[in-house]
Structures are given as structure tokens and as C-alpha cells.
Amino acid sequence: MAEVLGTFEQAVLLEVLRLRDEAYGRAILKAVQERLERELAAGAVHATLERLEGKGLLSSRLGPGTDIRAGRARRFYRVQPAGIRALNDARRTFNNIWRGVKWPVTALESL
Amino acid sequence: MKTPQSDARPPRWAEAILRMLLRPHDRETVSGDLLEEYRDTIVPTRGRAADLWYIRQVAWYLLRASWMWGTLMGAALVIRYLLDTLVPPADYKIRATVLSWTLLGVCVLAGFVTTWRTRSMRAGVLASSTAATLGALVSIVGTAMMLAVWHDPATLVEWQRSGGVEEALIDVPLKVVAFGIAMGIAGAALGKGTSRVTSRG
Fold first, then answer.
1. Cβ–Cβ below 8 Å for A42 and B37
2. Best mutation target, A68, A74, A75, to test chain B (most B CBs within 10 A)
């Protein structure tokens, strides 16, 4: 069975997928903030990336820095097959939970 | 072309603390991400308040390294006071000894784990001292809440027997912080020594 993902983990993994070759820490932070429409602590995103990499759902490689970051290296992330499986499982569970319910939920008539 | 914000620098002390708290694996990349966000987005939109944003980000890393230990210490202190209030013993010595060793263990562990993770002794001492400060704050709040609930004369006499309200609200929290720094240094030294031995192997 694949990893069970929390909502925030799903958001981070999906942004890594969407950003493709441009998925490094700061770009992921900005993308997740825009998607969730709220400001996040950079540490929360970095901690999630570290955890997902530890679980084998992401891999990373170092890339060159730029002037604006004082030449400091960037860590680029890529979703691994286990990450894809975990995302598909999460979506399947979500769909099962909502099956037969009209959205937005108002009252019993939604069923 | 260079813009003024591309040369902007966050407070040096905050950047030093951030780098200290990061694993060697993340030191360049994570501090680079924060610097890029600070220069590219935060300084242009928030101006002078950008430094506050940066300090808040660093505080997140510091709390991440210390909140668990601080909560454990605070819980140990509050449980001790709760037991002393509800089940007063004939002799407080055993409970005092158990509490002292628990706090000692938590402070040493906080210093050890953080140093092991970051390879920085200063980070270990900082995490342990922050944990002890959090523990002291939890203990003060917990003690004040207990006093608000149980303040009948019999309970206050028991409080006096176990050291008094001043000891619980002032003396013990101050001692816990001093203890956290001293034991954090010991834990950090252990962590540094262990990481040197294992990296050689």
C-alpha cells in the first residue's frame, strides 16, 4: 500500500509535479502559497520536502545558484514513482469519500 | 541589472542563527531560498518590515528544534505541582529527585539531538535553552491556572510545605532556564563527539 498523504503533502507533491524542471524550494513555496491562497512559513514547506524525500516519494539534486541568492545552490526536486502512486491513492480515497454527495453541501438534500 | 533590493541583506544575526539550525545538507539551499524570497518578494512589497518577516521565518526553525522538548519540560513541572497539590506526600524529596533527573535528561537530549542533526554545538545549546525557556513559561502558566482553581487554605498550606508559590512561579522557572543552558552544553558536547566518531567510521 502506498503512503497515506496529508493535504499539505499533496499540495507540495502536486506543485513539484506542475513545476517540472523548475521545482526548487523557493519556487515550490510560492506555488503552494498561491494555490492555498495564504502565506506559509518557508520552514513548513522545507520540512515537508525533507519528509517526502525521506519517505522516498521525492528525489533531489543540487543546481547552480543565482546572484539574488548570493550564489547559494538550489535543490531541485522530482516526484518518484512511489510519489505518483501515493497521489493517485489520495485522489481515489478523496473521490470515494465524496461519492454520491452534491457539492457544495447544504443539508440532507445534498445526498 | 542590479536593483536595490537585490543587495538587501536580512539581519546578520538572524541569518547566522538560521544557518546554525539547518542540517549541513540544507545549509546553502534553504538559506538561499529564504534570501531569494526576501530580496525578490518581501523587500519590494514590505520595505523595512521585511526584516521582521525574515526573523519570523528563523523563529519557526528555532521553535521546530525546541517545542517538543519545551513541552515535555513544562508538562513534567506541571504534573509535579499537580501531584503535590492533589496527592501531597510526606516527603517531597523523591518527587524532587525524579523531576530533576527528568529535566536533566530532556535538556541533554535536546542539546544532543539538535547538535547531531545540525553538527553545530551552538545550535544544540540554543535549542536546549529555548526549550527550557518554553518549559519555564508552560510551568508558570500551568501553576497560575492551578492556583486559580485550587486556592483554599488547606491547599495553600500544602503549597507552602512544598516550597511556596514564589518558588513555583519565579525560582524554579529561573533555575530551569539556567539548567537548560548548562545541560544543553553537555548534550551538545556529547552530540558533537558522537557525530565526529560516526563520521570517521
1. yes
2. A68
